[in-house]
């Protein structure tokens, strides 16, 4: 399955921790980082750990160019699958924001 990877903008992390992003306007709070293929949500999250996709800092330029400050996908980041199901990464898995 294909997934869009959306990372929180630093201002969203700082200003609205605990808030859910608007699934119809992710660009207001998140930055589209890249698209990946993964078996499922959990595998996508695993693939987006820094040690897996940027073990030697390969993502540094991409992250800086997009104004992002974190490499590992974390709580508050978003996955959008090929069926346009929007899922927020939470402390205990995922929360579906829209389907």
Structure summary, number of beta strands: 5
Radius of gyration equals 12 Å
- Ranges where pLDDT stays below 50 over 5 or more residues in a row are none
> How confident overall, as mean pLDDT?
91
Number of helical segments with 4 or more residues: 4
> Which structural category fits the helices and strands?
alpha+beta
Spatial strand arrangement across the major sheet: 2-1-3-4-5
Q: What characterizes the major β-sheet?
A: 5 strands, antiparallel
Total number of distinct structural domains: 1
Order of helices and strands: EHEHHHEEE
Could you describe the 3D structure shown?
This protein has 99 residues and is an alpha+beta fold. The chain has one domain (2-98). It contains 4 helices and 5 strands; from the N terminus they run E-H-E-H-H-H-E-E-E. The chain has helices at residues 10-15, 41-47, 50-53, 60-65; strands spanning 2-8, 30-37, 78-81, 86-90, 93-98. A 5-stranded antiparallel β-sheet has the order 2-1-3-4-5. The longest helix is centred in the middle third of the chain and has 7 residues, at 41-47. It is globular and about 35 Å long. The protein starts with a strand and ends with a strand. The model has no long low-confidence stretch (mean pLDDT 91).
Walk me through the topology.
Blueprint: E1 2-8, H1 10-15, E2 30-37, H2 41-47, H3 50-53, H4 60-65, E3 78-81, E4 86-90, E5 93-98
Antiparallel strand pairs: 1-2, 1-3, 3-4, 4-5
What's the gist of this structure?
The chain is α+β, with helices and mostly antiparallel strands.
Main traits of this protein?
single chain, 99 residues, alpha+beta, five-stranded antiparallel β-sheet, 4 helices, globular
